[in-house]
Amino acid sequence: MLDRALTLDELLCFALYSANNAMGRLYRPLLAKHGLTYPQYLVLVALWQQDGRKVGDLGLALTLETNTLTPLLKRMEVAGLLQRHRNPEDERSVIVSLTAKGKALEETAAEISRCIVASAGDDLVELIALKERIQVLAKRLHQAE
Questions:
Q1: Residue 54: inside a domain
Q2: Is residue 76 part of a domain?
Q3: For the whole model, what pTM was predicted?
Q4: For labeling, which of 2, 18, 52, 72 is most exposed (least CB within 10 Å)?
């Protein structure tokens, strides 16, 4: 057990926070070319993976609460990237689907990913292993909540 407070350099949370900030700074100009924010990009990636999702399911996939996700989806709908409509099977839920404009942006995703991978060192095996370790950590932390 630790008998002292950790320094910034020793804190895992600070290393993750710093890496997240750096990643955000890399993404910002790449996404700005397409008029996207990082959270909007994540919504698009989730919908490219599986279009026509319920808002609740999208929130689970992105680990976002509905009250955070709904305004984001509204802005994306105004931008013509997606559409929201009531679920015909359950009027209480809303389905989110990509528009042609939202689908067309998928072609840019590969270039964005290439730029990020190049900036992170180009070692795909290492980056995949790191991502998997972070996902395990995230799962443990969610279970501890």
A1: yes
A2: yes
A3: 0.89
A4: 2
How many domains are contained in the chain? 1
Which residue bears the tokens 């929201």?
Answer: 84
Max alpha carbon distance in the chain (Å)?
58
Between CA 132 and CA 141 the distance in angstroms is 14
- CA–CA distance, 15 with 134 (Å, rounded to integer): 12
| DSSP category for residue 35 | T
For residue 28, the model assigns a pLDDT of 96
Is 66 part of any domain?
yes
Say which residues have a Cβ less than 8 Å from residue 40's Cβ, sequence separation at least 6. 31, 72, 75, 76, 81
pLDDT in tens, 106-138: 998 889 999 999 999 879 999 999 999 999 999
Give the integer Cα–Cα distance in Å for 144 and 54: 27
* Alpha carbon distance 140, 111 (integer Å): 32
pLDDT in tens, 61-92: 999 999 999 999 999 999 999 999 998 888 88
